[in-house]
Write a structure and sequence with these properties.
Elements (H helix, E strand, L loop, with lengths): L13 E4 L15 H6 L1 H4 L10 E4 L3 E2 L11 E5 L6 H13 L3 E6 L9 H6 L13 E2 L20 E4 L4 E4 L14 H17 L3 E4 L15 E2 L16 E2 L9 H13 L5 E4 L9 H10 L5 E3 L3 H4 L4 H14 L18 H5 L1 H12 L6 E3 L19 H5 L42 H5 L5 H13 L2 H5 L1 E5 L6 E8 L2 E8 L5 E4 L4 E6 L8 E2 L2 E4 L4 E6 L2
Parallel strand pairs: 1-2, 1-14, 2-5, 5-9, 9-12, 12-13
Antiparallel strand pairs: 3-4, 6-8, 7-8, 10-11, 15-16, 16-17, 17-22, 18-21, 19-22, 20-21
Bound molecules: beta-D-glucopyranose (BGC).
């Protein structure tokens, strides 16, 4: 049971906004900060709102947009595409008016090559900012200092002719890595946090947290011996085990320096982005991130993004994750984001509804990526419309992230009501049905399901913070668990199969929700009949 949870105690759910694609108020085909402000009531504070009370906004800072804002040229200003700093202040005060917390993205590993620090750094080996970045000499044969790879393809080292050294870029060559071993860099990045904290933001999402500490001797990474065995289209980045280019010896000290800054401010938090990796157990990996600074720093849980469609697989990852959490810690289950295919496209629509019930009946702070609440699907992007560097640099292996970044679907009007102008990415194929307007008045829609679950969760201590326990003796492909607090109990039963399943839940109770539209609960003497892919929430008395 959760006790003494101080920060973000009353936050029910966190909603990720990808600002380019949320709502375009300026009419240029690209979403912006005023667009978010205009639509705050969709999130909270009005009849029919979704019912989330915290947002995380992906980067909106000054940027050449080579990686759509994850290449930052000025950490302390807003890119004109998205508006101005005053627009952000206005968004923040409006959000706070509705009691919505605002989390911003913090990208510590790299800047844009247009950042003034990098421009200075590359100007000369004697620049006062030279050591802000990672510069190394070539090997005697002129090749790169080691075998490290860029996540987006090719070597992680870029030769710089003028100063005759290589610089490191774990992502695009336009995103040079900062040198976190340099205390001046750490001090400058702490100042960035203070800048936004003083303006009033409620937290930070820390981009690619594990990359900021590296092997200080820049040794080669090991070869991944399993690479290429499972599929011909594996990402070449996985041909190495990344035991040197990330997760270095000072990672958790560096992260702690950041959380110490956040800790000085009331009720602010920091969430670390970290994907599961093969060379660490989930327990080791996630515990370390929780231990950085209990109560202030915490990691997303991304295991649900990679889980195969299997009741046991979902049950066991959740169960083992719950086991590693200490009393006051909240899990942050996250099933989708701007880097992952849409849930409905990964598994199917009915399955996505089932996962909504799962996610919103688990303990902790669920994180919802914009559009998942509408059941949005991956859009087909023609080759000449592709924007994402990850797709363009490593073509043909499905790395492009455009399909899950298309405009939020507000209505059946032109451009899905997102903009007056042609949007930067095409709108999804099903926008005439899967949109906010349509789904608001449809009792059987995704949006209605999300709203109902979020409303229930908001006022229910058992669902938010109660104990979690898997229950056993189920038919195959049925997952059941119990949520319990001193206030009451629930059983959640999820049918992952395409067949009807009968489940004996062992207690009499009342079905309060089903993922199947217009459900007629078939439930007597503690036996539940679940339709294919149906999930139900049952309130039980004991
Ligand atoms: C972000 C990506 C980005 C990368 C580099 C991530 O994990 O979510 O969208 O491309 O970091 O900053």
């Amino acid at each position: 049971m959760l006790k003494n949870m101080k920060r973000w105690q009353n936050v029910n759910a966190l909603y990720q906004i990808y600002p380019r694609s949320f709502y375009d108020a300026s009419g240029d085909g690209i979403g912006d900060l005023n667009g978010i402000t205009t639509k705050l009531k969709y999130l909270k504070g009005a009849v029919g709102s979704l019912g989330v009370d915290a947002i995380w906004i992906s980067p909106f800072y000054t940027s050449p947009m080579v990686d759509f804002g994850y290449d930052i040229a000025n950490y302390c200003d807003v890119d004109p595409l998205f508006g101005t700093l005053n627009d952000f202040r206005n968004l923040l005060s409006q959000a706070h008016h509705y009691d919505i917390k605002v989390m911003v993205d913090f990208v510590p590993n790299h800047t844009s090559d247009q950042h003034e620090w990098f421009i200075d750094s590359k100007s000369s080996k004697n620049s006062s900012k030279r050591d802000y970045y990672v510069w190394q000499d070539a090997k005697s044969d002129g090749s790169a200092p080691n075998n490290w790879l860029s996540t987006f393809g090719g070597s992680a080292w870029q030769w710089h002719e003028d100063t005759q050294q290589y610089y490191l870029h774990s992502f695009l060559k336009e995103q040079p890595d900062l040198n976190w071993d340099n205390p001046d860099v750490r001090a400058a990045m702490a100042d960035v946090l203070r800048f936004w904290l003083d303006i009033g933001v409620d937290g930070f999402r820390v981009d690619v947290a594990r990359y900021i500490s590296k092997d200080t001797q820049y040794r080669d990474e090991s070869i991944n011996v399993t690479y290429g065995k499972s599929s011909a289209t594996e990402d070449p980045y996985q041909s190495l085990v990344h035991n040197r280019s990330q997760y270095g010896p000072r990672l958790f000290d560096f992260l702690n320096e950041l959380t110490q800054v956040v800790d000085k401010y009331d009720d602010r938090i920091m969430i670390f982005e970290d994907y599961p990796v093969e060379n660490l157990s989930i327990a080791e990996q996630y515990r370390a991130f929780y231990d950085v600074h209990p109560g202030v720093g915490m990691p997303f849980n991304f295991q649900g993004m990679y889980c195969q469609w299997d009741a046991n697989a979902f049950g066991s990852f959740i169960d083992s994750f719950q086991d590693i959490l200490h009393v006051d810690e909240r899990p942050l289950y996250c099933f989708g984001n701007h880097d992952q295919p849409r849930i409905a496209s990964r598994f199917g629509s009915e399955q996505a509804r089932l996962l909504a019930l799962l996610q919103l009946t688990l303990p902790g702070l669920p994180v919802i990526y914009n559009g998942e609440e509408l059941g949005m699907e991956n859009a087909d992007i023609a080759p000449n419309e592709m924007q994402d560097p990850a797709g363009n640099y490593t073509p043909g292996i499905g790395m492009g992230r455009d399909p899950q970044r298309t405009p939020l679907q507000w209505s059946a009007e032109q451009y899905a009501g997102f903009s007056q102008a042609k949007p930067w990415l095409p709108v999804g194929e099903h926008y005439t049905t899967l949109n906010v307007k349509n789904e608001t008045s449809d009792n059987d829609s995704f949006l209605t399901l999300y709203r109902a679950l979020l409303a229930l969760r908001r006022n229910d201590i058992t669902l938010r913070d109660g104990d979690f326990q898997l229950t056993s003796q189920n038919p195959s492909q049925v997952l059941t668990y119990r949520r319990q607090s001193s206030e009451g109990g629930y059983i959640v039963a999820l049918n992952f199969s395409s067949e009807v399943k009968k489940v004996d839940i062992g207690s009499p109770g009342e079905v309060v929700m089903s993922t199947h539209p217009a459900f007629t609960p078939d439930f007597s003497e503690a036996q539940l009949v679940l339709k294919p892919y149906e999930g139900v929430l049952v309130r039980v008395n004991r």
